[in-house]
Amino acid sequence: MFENIRLSLQGILSHKIRSFLTMLGIIIGIAAIIAIVSIIEGTKETIKKNLIGAGNNTVQIRLMQGDYPIQFNYTPVPDTVRVISKEYKERIKNIPEVKRCSLYRMREYTENFFYRNKMLEGIALLGIDEDYLEAEGYEVSKGAGFSEKQYKDFSKVALIEESVARSVFDGEEPIGKILDIAGEPFTVIGVVAKRSGFEPVINTVDEYYTFNSANQGGKVFIPTEDWSICFQYDEPQHCIIQATDTDSMTTAGKKAADILNENIRSVSAPQQEENEEGAEEASMDLSLTKVEYKSESLLEQAKAMQDLSQSTNQMLIWIASISLLVGGIGVMNIMLVSVTERTREIGLKKALGARRRRILAQFLTEASVLTSIGGLIGVLSGIGLAHVVANIAEVPVAISTSAIVISVVFSMGVGIVFGLIPSIKAANLNPIDALRYE
């Protein structure tokens, strides 16, 4: 084997230009595939990062009525839904894919929300437990966070996002200021901000509204025990979980939602009959729509977009693979020329006792070495090409190790497949005819 490789390298180096031109098709094909796959992988990661957010692997699990979150501003608490107990929270925390769990209450639109007699619009109010800020990736940038005591003793304190500090207090020092929430005074004790400074890549107006619609106005946080001071004491919570990794988000979200749905009482038979009769009279009544906890499917959306992107780019890979076919034909052509040039050498070897399989192995090895060298050069060229294209087009790139390994193995396979016919021809030469060949 090593002797065949040495002879192959010797033959390639003795015809450098011819060998390079033969490898050129393989080099171009491998380089194109490596570049395309690397840019595809980089684009997939960007799609995932844009949709999922800052990379803290959080999943929102909200109480839904049909396809819409329940807004307790306008919808009464359903009789079937109970407050989530600590037992359910512990069960969720014990899910293998869950790293952290938090229960919270939320009003996206709070009408009776004032600062100095000025109504605050577009600001969400959340009643949070001690795990929420960590799960969502918040840190205190000014002032102080809630103490363990303040989570339990109805202290009427609040935390605000930096966007609220800018828009509401307009340069004033927010710490110590009083917010009027449902007629109750809450003292601002701290300002919080997301730990990560991630900004999504936005290329169109539609993407701007997609990524920014949920971030308008900002958020104000109060301890969850203080919620009863302002709103209904038995108002059900929503849930947020932090998955152990990005790929576990969907599984963790579904398992947590299943546990929370166990906390929803089933409708009794008389009530179900009453609802069915009411459905005939008012089929559009939302109160009859099923209420359940559902996890957001951002990861599934990301995968759907990635699949769409990948299916489109796979066509480019197939087109790039055509050059490999052309390169393979070039290898077969040059190997046939090599067999013709070395006919007398083959005849001499067979006359001295060389068997068919040795001649076959020699030429197959030469074809494989030729295409493998082309594959390695193609890999290096592909990595360089991927970075060049990424810099010019301002797109991300992620070099795929599997694509590199597959490309090199595939290039060797091309050498074996397309070198087979010339090798068989060489092995089948009659030694007497070969020695007489001019």
Give the structure's gist in a few sentences.
This protein has 14 helices and 13 strands. The chain is of the alpha+beta class and 438 residues long.
The structure class reads: alpha+beta
Number of strands: 13
Global mean pLDDT: 77
Number of helices: 14
Tell me the helix content: 40-55%
Tell me which oligomeric state these chains represent: single chain
Give the SSE string: HHEEHEEEEHEEHEEHEHEHHEHHHHH
Describe the structure.
This protein has 438 residues and is α+β, with helices and mostly antiparallel strands. The chain folds into two domains: 2-50 and 305-436, no CATH class; 67-268 and 284-289, no CATH class. Helices cover 53% and strands 16% of the residues. It contains 14 helices and 13 strands. It has helices at 2-14, 16-52, 86-93, 132-136, 162-169, 205-212, 227-230, 249-261, 269-281, 298-341, 343-351, 356-393, 401-427, 431-436; strands at 58-65, 68-69, 98-107, 113-115, 118-119, 124-128, 138-143, 157-161, 178-181, 184-194, 219-223, 238-243, 291-295. Strands 1, 2, 3, 4, 5, 6, 7, 8, 9, 10, 11, 12 and 13 form a 13-stranded mixed sheet that branches. The longest helix has 44 residues, at 298-341. The two termini are 30 Å apart. Mean pLDDT is 77; it is low at 197-215 and 267-288.
